[in-house]
Amino acid sequence: xxxTRYRNRIELLQGTLDLLVLQTLQWGAQHGYGISQLIQARSxxxxxxxxxxxYPALHRMERxxxxxxxxxxxxxxQRVKEYRLTASGKKQLLSERSRxxxxxxxxxxxxxxxxxx
Amino acid sequence: xxxxxxxxxxxxxxxxxxxSHVELAVRDRMARGESRAEAESAVRRQFGNExxxxxxxxxxxxxxxxxxxxxxxxxxxRILLKSPGFSLIALITIALGIGANTxxxxxxxxxxxxxxxxxxxxxxVTLHLSKPNFDTGAIPYPxxxxxxxxxxxxxxxxxxxxxxxxxVVNGESEYMRLNYITSDFFPILxxxxxxxxxxxxxxxxxxxxxxxxxxxxxxxxRFGGTPDVLGKKLNLDGNVFTIVGVIPASFxxxxxxxxxxxxxxxxxxxxxxxxxxxxxxxxxxxxxxxxPGLTLEQAxxxxxxxxxxxxxxxxxxxxxxxxxxxxxxxxxxxxxRGVLLLLLGxxxxxxxxxxxxxATLLLARAQARKREFAVRTALGxxxxxxxxxxxxxxxxxxxxxxxxGVLLAMWGTRGVLGRLPQELPRVQNLHVDARVLGFSVAxxxxxxxxxxxxxxxxxxxxxxxxxxxxxxxxxxxxxAGQRALVMAEIAIALVLLIGAGLMVxxxxxxxxxxxxxxxxxxxxxxxxxxxxxxxxxxxxxxxxVREVRDTxxxxxxxxxxxxxxxxxxxxxxxxxxxxxxxxPRPRSSSEMNWTLVSGVQLSYLRIMxxxxxxxxxxxxxxxxxxxxxxxxxxxxxxxxFRDQDPIGKRIRWGDEPRDEAEVVGIVGxxxxxxxxxxxxxxxxxxxxxxxxEEAAPGPNLGFIVRTGTAPLGVLPTLKDRVRQLNxxxxxxxxxxxxxxxxxxxxxxxxxxxxxGAFAVFAVVLAAIGIYGVVSYLVGQRxxxxxxxxxxxxxxxxxxxxxxxxxxxxxxxGVAVGxxGAFALTRAMTKLLFGVSATxxxxxxxxxxxxxxxxxxxxxxxxxxxxxxxxxxxLRYE
Lengths: 117, 877
Description:
The complex is a heterodimer of chains A (about 120) and B (about 900).
Chain A: H1 2-26, E1 30-31, H2 32-42, H3 51-64, E2 67-73, E3 79-85, H4 87-116
Antiparallel strand pairs in A: 1-3, 2-3
Helix pairs in contact in A: 1-2, 1-3, 1-4
Chain B: H1 3-31, H2 36-47, H3 50-61, H4 64-82, H5 84-113, E1 124-131, E2 134-137, H6 141-150, E3 154-169, E4 172-181, H7 185-189, E5 195-196, E6 211-215, H8 216-223, E7 233-236, E8 239-247, E9 254-255, E10 258-259, E11 263-266, E12 285-290, H9 296-313, H10 315-318, E13 322-327, H11 328-333, H12 337-368, H13 370-378, H14 383-419, H15 434-459, H16 480-511, E14 522-528, H17 538-553, E15 558-566, E16 575-580, E17 593-600, H18 604-608, E18 612-615, E19 629-633, H19 634-640, E20 650-652, E21 660-667, E22 685-689, E23 700-707, H20 711-725, E24 730-736, H21 737-744, H22 746-780, H23 782-790, H24 795-824, H25 840-857, H26 859-866, H27 870-875
Parallel strand pairs in B: 4-11, 6-8, 17-22, 19-21
Antiparallel strand pairs in B: 1-2, 1-12, 1-13, 3-4, 3-12, 5-8, 6-11, 7-8, 9-10, 14-23, 14-24, 15-17, 15-23, 16-17, 16-20, 18-21, 19-22, 20-21
Helix pairs in contact in B: 1-2, 4-14, 5-12, 5-14, 5-15, 12-15, 12-16, 12-22, 14-15, 16-22, 16-24, 16-25, 17-20, 22-25, 22-26, 24-25, 24-26
């Protein structure tokens, strides 16, 4: 059912979604829509962030203290909620990055012999 | 609380955030050339289920559980309102179960569990003299003083003795109860007077000052509650006492023979020569406070050592005597422990049945709501969420029922208070206290969890397939849970009914027991002679006594009057030691024989209608000038004379020449300790003639009369006549013997009534349970019955199926119940009389009754099964 699908997608992306969001915010404060567009763009349209995962993640990370939010007026005179990286968020970003690198090295290590044939 | 406002703001902000996201996305799309409508629908699709997004985001805030709880409660409330019949039955069942439990637990708590309201109550003990045949005997005054002086384990010891006297105030005589106490009595209990002081050490000695303490009630009634009461005088039995203290009204104790009185006087003021007698127990009983840090065993060992010293120094009076100390709490509550625990067990059972009933009700409803659960799952609810919602619903029911139950308990406790037997100790303090309230809340929550879990296990497995047909198919499920619950209910109801039945039979047996005398129209009372009539000369006193007796005898309506000195059967006792005349006096009291003794006149036999078995009773020839004679009862004869003929034998009880008598007659035994007198109680009885007493009678006389008509009608005449002889004479404490006997049964009657009430309640609940479950089961199988009847089954076949199923449930329930009853009624043996704990008649009758009730309860649903219209049943696909 639809409910299980949501669960699964959050499960898979949770760790990486955090990383992507934190990295994106390193380049400057953004609102939710902007974050999803940026991730989509920079990943070459491969990663389409599901809003059902994005907003819970944003609110969770805000509770953890890695990002902080502020209501601003956008260029189009629209009220938007902007998020920015905090100091502890920066630390979290670094640790997530190193974890990701470890993970990708590990996976590469497993894949290598297969591709070597 | 700022919480809801803050939440609403958060919600609003989230809404805005999502809207702004959507707006930004729409604008982007429009910038790329789509129309607004196209853009919006595309964005919406991409966004997905907005509600879910909101939900999940909200969850991250961490307050979701509270919100969900609110939702669950509101929903649960609406659901309960939608089926008012069910809700009402469930609520009432829980309320009654919890209410009864709480009320009874309050009683048990107050009487048995709550600590005594005195400082360091665990150090308090009651003190008794342990004699060879009687281990809670009274303590002679000199022996008490020895204990006091020689012990090393008590911080204090005290004596008390209840008595009565005539208080003369402004020429008016009032007969009042009073207590003789020693100086440590109130200090041991930590009671400080609201005015004045306690007795100082030494003021309680013989020859000490004539002081008195009065109760706060008396202070307010007689002395206006003014502080100048200290120093005022009381005239008691002709003696003057000075008031030195006022005892607070909060002091309220019933302990053995002790009860709170309006007047307390030092023991040394008791004008009786027997006080100095080491062998005279005089009904004095003691209390003590063990030194802090010492155990009961250590105190016992210490007092045993003291007793041994005394036995060596005073072999005549102290050989074989020891100190018996009992923790005070046990002294107060001991005899009621069994009854109260039994009732608590019974009410616990009733609560179980109530829980079972509501559980089956909920289970049945859960099945009916399968469709609702299926729909909710389709809408995205998780199983955990639905389980939570069921728990909330069950909890709501349980807590509401519990609140109602607690209210019922408070109201019920006050109602019960009026009906409790007077002897039940400490009931004056009865109230619903915090612990009991906590207990009720705990029960409520526990039952809420039980209810909540039962349907949760049954129905938290929703299948979407249930959306069609809604479970109306040939049911392969066995509804094992509900059947088991019904069987359990029947079993419990059976156990309770059997218990109640046994109690009823016990009581009936007791009522029909012959007490050994005829209590109808017999009345006992006392006459307190005016202090002015007191005389040193015994002859003068006896003349006065004869005057009183004659005036009573000649009153219209009076058939016979007798003086009575000593025990009144079923009410109080008097015993003494004796030995066979002609033999040397045994060296110590422990080697002598004990017998109950009463001093009466020759009309006594006629009054009490006691049968004369052999020999003769007293006659007019038995006077102070003629040889002394006594009459004994058959128990006395068989105990002390066995095969010999007691008539003609002589017994002796003292050293004086006139302390010996010849046995001239044997009469029937009179039950002394109650209709259920046991073989181990002291039962030998002896009668002496008061007309042969030389010693002057006391100012308080005891009389017993038989009247032609109701004694209470004659009472005013008797009172007047007594007062006519002397204005200060008082006739006091009239008691009908029938009432005395009835009082001994009051505790039994009380527990029988309660147990019976619980049993009836249990049966009603079980019947409701059976009805509910069978109805439900029939409802489930309507389809099946329709098919059967369409295939040719007759109505009586269907009836047979339903009744057969119910009979099977009842059979199992009854079987389990019988096993349980066999095991559990053993615990009741002490309370039973004349009927065994496994009395076959009771078991059989009760079982038959319960089976009839069970079958009756499924009569209506069975009829409904028979009336099933096959066409309609089959149409419900």
